């Protein structure tokens, strides 16, 4: 999925200085952003207060939206570099096509994992005949310097591991939790888990103390270590935790994201992750001129143009605002 803001912020982020070395309970507000022609998303990373959780650098939560009488998702071909996209659907279907020739329809609770690496372009659309509701999350993972220029790749996993215990059903998208390990390729120590909680659930989940974590609700609400969490915000848990306690009165669905604090400083602007403002400007120029990025086969139509670059040079601003 593309960042479709007409004037996207540029972020220089990473490093360990602002990563909490101890447990935290910081409620981070998201913001509403218009995606494409009519899809509104809640942007939870980067957000006011924090730009990274582990290597997770971008989190959009959208829906549930009634798209029965509309085209649904319509994101034209656009580029990516230096990151992975993790697409997670709770309702609906999305047709993914990319410059590698991948052509798949992604359904709920299937993992669509795209490694941009050196360069990739892709498009995402609801199929012509699509389900009534569209609901999901689009997540980006920053790639470390050693692999950020790797060859692009796409993985589609239709079955994912998980576990059920004490009123929670967990599906592991990335990394490992509770003895279940995702088949998705990860390039940094991280974890991403969908947590479906029954009404009245009271569960304590195991965590890695060396990881920092964030939690968001896709539906419903939950009590997380005594803090109420509802859609539209992310709760930052810091690191140093071995467990987290979740309680619900009604059914809820949460996403747990975490990983080792990302040591490298990176620049993220529009759909690119690089290491300097000059490099980002070069990516934008190459996209505009048709260099570096291949076309998306089978897509008949326009592609997205890059927004204007910020007028001022990028300045280091770290992991938090």
Automatic annotation (TrEMBL):
Binds 1 Fe cation per subunit. Fe cation binds at residues 78, 80, 122, 124. Its cofactor is Fe cation. Keywords: Iron, Metal-binding. Belongs to the pirin family. This is Pirin family protein. Transmembrane segments: none annotated. Residues 39-141 form the Pirin N-terminal domain. It comes from Modestobacter versicolor. Residues 193-290 form the Pirin C-terminal domain. The lineage of its organism: Bacteria, Bacillati, Actinomycetota, Actinomycetes, Geodermatophilales. Gene3D superfamilies: Jelly Rolls. One of its GO terms (molecular function) is metal ion binding.
């Amino acid at each position: 999925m593309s960042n479709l803001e007409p004037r996207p912020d540029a972020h220089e982020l990473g490093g360990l200085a602002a990563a909490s070395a101890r447990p935290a309970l910081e409620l981070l507000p998201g913001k509403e952003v218009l995606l494409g022609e009519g899809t509104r998303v809640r942007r939870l990373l980067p957000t006011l207060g924090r730009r990274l959780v582990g290597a997770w650098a971008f989190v959009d939560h959208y829906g549930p939206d009634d798209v029965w009488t509309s085209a649904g998702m319509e994101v034209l071909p656009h580029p990516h570099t230096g990151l992975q996209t993790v697409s997670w659907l709770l309702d609906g279907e999305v047709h993914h096509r990319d410059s590698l020739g991948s052509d798949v329809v992604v359904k709920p609770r299937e993992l669509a994992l795209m490694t941009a690496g050196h360069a990739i372009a892709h498009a995402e659309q609801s199929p012509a005949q699509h389900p009534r509701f569209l609901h999901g999350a689009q997540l980006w993972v920053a790639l470390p310097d050693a692999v950020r220029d790797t060859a692009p790749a796409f993985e589609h996993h239709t079955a994912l591991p998980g576990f059920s215990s004490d009123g929670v059903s967990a599906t592991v998208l990335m990394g490992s939790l509770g003895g279940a390990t995702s088949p998705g390729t990860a390039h940094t120590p991280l974890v991403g888990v969908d947590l479906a909680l029954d009404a009245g659930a009271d569960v304590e989940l195991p965590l890695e103390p060396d990881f920092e974590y964030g939690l968001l609700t896709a539906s419903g609400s939950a009590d997380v270590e005594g803090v109420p969490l509802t859609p539209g915000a992310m709760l930052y848990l810091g690191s140093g935790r071995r467990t987290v306690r979740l309680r619900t009165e009604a059914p809820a669905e949460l996403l747990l994201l975490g990983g080792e604090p990302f040591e490298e400083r990176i620049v993220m602007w529009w759909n690119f992750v690089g290491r300097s403002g000059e490099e980002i400007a070069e990516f934008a120029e190459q996209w505009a001129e048709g260099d570096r990025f291949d076309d998306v086969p089978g897509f008949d139509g326009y592609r997205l143009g890059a927004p204007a670059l910020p007028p001022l040079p990028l300045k280091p601003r770290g992991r938090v605002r």
